[in-house]
Amino acid sequence: MPAPAHRRSYRREGEEKRRDDLIAAAMSLVAEGGPEAATVRAIAARAGVTPGLIRHYFQSKEELTHAAYRHVMESMTQEAVRAVETLPADDPLSRLAAFIAANFRPPVMTPLLVGVWAGYMHLGRNDPVMHAIHEATYLGYRDRLQALIAALPRPSDPARDRREAIACNALIDGLWIEGGSLPDSFDPGEVTRIALDGIGAMLGVTFPATAYPATAYPSLPDRKTNP
Amino acid sequence: MPAPAHRRSYRREGEEKRRDDLIAAAMSLVAEGGPEAATVRAIAARAGVTPGLIRHYFQSKEELTHAAYRHVMESMTQEAVRAVETLPADDPLSRLAAFIAANFRPPVMTPLLVGVWAGYMHLGRNDPVMHAIHEATYLGYRDRLQALIAALPRPSDPARDRREAIACNALIDGLWIEGGSLPDSFDPGEVTRIALDGIGAMLGVTFPATAYPATAYPSLPDRKTNP
DNA sequence: ATGGAAGTTATACGTTCGAACAATAAGGGA
DNA sequence: TCCCTTATTGTTCGAACGTATAACTTCCAT
């Protein structure tokens, strides 16, 4: 077997870009083919580098997996938090509605993100680091949801708030999995409306019409309003 | 390395028992350590046989995986169906409640079953056989739920029934995942009560008290009623 | 220009996986 | 009781995996 005539040429990139590229490559591979498809060779090929480079930026493949999972979970929580913090504190109903709705549009409810979540979720059962990442994001999410529920203008009842937070969290999770797995089975905005209607019914409140997504289909070719 | 002096002795078993043992071994390994822990060697060891025997009963490891996944999904659907068909058709409220409650007690809501579901769920994204098994059980489940909702004594509205079936299915899924993953975070029967209260609120109905699980904790050592 | 640090490639190693296959023990029918 | 089918074992094989490491290329400082 003759020695290769030439090495392939390459460009040097900053550390941040390389790490982001490798994480994005790992995420997309997991979303498409599950964790077993995210081999170091496949990740490197998708990122446009050679396998050895992974070990230059991550001590092990496990460390890259942790970084990718943390990126996925944090991006979802940050998106919901960002949707809330722009609203005034004296409008708890709109704040809760915005928190809910943020989960059912990109970049949170996408096949890629649901696929990565599905591929990685069982790893939290044994890997302590993955479990810690999962707990920090997941329970933090539910606590924040319970705080938004407790802020509603009605008599205080912490035990009821806990039960309702559990129920609302479960409904959001189930709808997110369904909507992200089968995006073509729902009209635009339909999942959001189902979530707001269902949670409103469970909490005994009615969310303002402004909290709902704009009606998606005039279903007529001529639209008076734009995008 | 000397040839082994003696082969280990063994007993011949019927085909059905061997297949069941291998499926159960694969399921428990997936529940504990994810799909990557369910190697042919580990499965054979747990079933008390040698790896070669797997290929005697299944053409490939993939075929064993399909059999195990089908067993998991079918056992869950059968359990919910069985809970309904013992109730009279003229009591749709109790039938719906029984269908819901069946998902939140053994043998459906167990860490093992949730773990197997989590470990296998991402395989449905690429493997056509797994996808078919998933669709046949999952959509069949939701259709049956929608039929029970449509049978409620109230004005007919198929579009509303569809939206409510989606919401109820999502709530059941989310609670089942939570309750099965963290069984110690809930009191006995608490998940069932949350599900019945939440679904009742979303549908605008009140389930009869007989549909709820018996209060679990007298929290006093002396109980008047039995086990 | 040029030297040197560091990013990147290419190759190799040891392990483990699913699979294949020949050898053997077991148990029922004649 | 013997024999023949077959359930089961023990071993081996090629492929692919994560990891390790030396050699090469790029690019900035000088």
TrEMBL record, chains A, B:
It holds the Pfam family TetR_N. The lineage of its organism: Bacteria, Pseudomonadati, Pseudomonadota, Alphaproteobacteria, Rhodobacterales. The keyword Transcription applies. Residues 16-76 form the HTH tetR-type domain. This is TetR family transcriptional regulator. SUPFAM superfamilies: Homeodomain-like, Tetracyclin repressor-like, C-terminal domain. Residues 39-58 bind DNA. InterPro entries: BetI_C, DNA-bd_HTH_TetR-type_CS, Homeodomain-like_sf, HTH-type_TetR-like_transc_reg, HTH_TetR, Tet_transcr_reg_TetR-rel_C_sf. Keywords: DNA-binding, Repressor, Transcription, Transcription regulation. It comes from the Bacteria.
